[in-house]
Design goal:
The complex is a heterodimer of chains A (112) and B (114).
Chain A (H helix, E strand, L loop, with lengths): L2 E5 L2 E5 L4 E8 L3 E9 L6 E6 L5 E4 L2 E5 L3 E6 L8 E11 L2 E6 L3 E6 L1
Chain B lengths: L4 E3 L2 E4 L5 E6 L6 E8 L3 E9 L2 E5 L6 E5 L5 E5 L8 E8 L9 E2 L3 E5 L1
Classes of the chains: A mainly beta (112), B mainly beta (114).
C-alpha cells in the first residue's frame, strides 16, 4: 500500500533558526513528489514538484530535496510568516490510474 | 489568471440530508480532483474527473459522487449525510491527465453535519 509519513508532527522554531522537515514515502510507481503549504482554513498552496532522486528546488527561504525514499524541506532563517502546515504528497500510478497520496503534514510555528 | 473557486465556502446540514458542492477550475484546466480533509485522516482523495469522465476514485462509499461538465466545472454530491462527513472539501485542478502536471487547490468548502 502506498504510504507517506512526515516528521516531525509539529515544530516550533525561533525566528532565524533554520531546520528541516522530512517526508518519507513507500510507494510503487512514483511519478512525482509535491510540497504544499496550508494556512488554517485555506486550501493547500503549491510550493515545489520533484521528479527524480538528487533533484533540488529553491524558493526564497525554502529548499526541497529528493532521494529515493524521502524528501526534505529545508527552511533557512525562517520568519513568523512561514508558520503553516507543510504537506508532502506523492503522485503514483496504481490499478485505478493516477492518484495523489498526502502525508499528514508538519505544523510549523515560527516565533518572533 | 483566476484560481480555483469553490462554492459555497461554508455549509451546515443535518444528518440524512444531501449536499452538492461546486468547483470551477483554473481557466484551461481540464482535470478536477476532489479531496476530503479532516483532522484525524488528513487529506484523502475522493475522485478525479477529466473530460467529463471519472478517471480515478478513492476509497469512499457510494454516497459520494461527482460529475464534470463540458466547461470543466465540477460538482460533488454527498447523499444521506452522516456526522463523520463533516470536513473541509477541497477541489484541485490541473491542465491535463499527464503525470507531470501540478495540481492547484481551491479554498475549500467547510461542511458541518449536525
Amino acid at each position: 500500500e502506498d504510504q507517506v509519513t512526515q516528521s516531525p508532527e509539529a515544530l516550533r522554531l525561533q525566528e532565524g533558526e533554520s531546520s528541516s522537515l522530512n517526508c518519507s514515502y513507500t510507494v510503487s510507481g512514483l511519478r512525482g513528489l509535491f510540497w504544499y503549504r496550508q494556512d488554517p482554513g485555506k486550501g493547500p498552496e503549491f510550493l515545489f514538484t520533484l521528479y527524480s532522486a538528487g533533484e533540488e528546488k529553491e524558493k526564497e527561504r525554502l529548499k526541497a530535496t529528493l532521494t529515493k525514499k524521502e524528501s526534505f524541506l529545508h527552511i533557512t532563517a525562517p520568519k513568523p510568516e512561514d508558520s503553516a502546515t507543510y504537506l508532502c504528497a506523492v503522485q503514483v500510478v496504481d490499478n485505478y490510474g493516477q492518484n495523489f497520496v498526502f502525508g499528514p503534514g508538519t505544523r510549523l510555528s515560527v516565533l518572533p | 489568471k483566476a484560481g480555483v473557486t469553490q462554492t459555497p465556502r461554508y455549509l451546515i446540514k443535518t444528518r440524512g440530508q444531501q449536499v452538492t458542492l461546486s468547483c470551477s477550475p483554473i481557466s484551461g484546466h481540464r482535470s478536477v480532483s476532489w479531496y476530503q480533509q479532516t483532522p484525524g485522516q488528513g487529506l484523502q482523495f475522493l475522485f478525479e474527473y477529466f473530460s467529463e469522465t471519472q478517471r480515478n476514485k478513492g476509497n469512499f462509499p457510494g454516497r459520494f459522487s461527482g460529475r464534470q461538465f463540458s466547461n470543466s466545472r465540477s460538482e460533488m454530491n454527498v447523499s444521506t449525510l452522516e456526522l463523520g462527513d463533516s470536513a473541509l472539501y477541497l477541489c484541485a485542478s490541473k491542465p491535463g491527465w499527464g503525470d507531470t502536471d501540478t495540481q492547484y487547490f481551491g479554498p475549500g468548502t467547510r461542511l458541518t453535519v449536525l
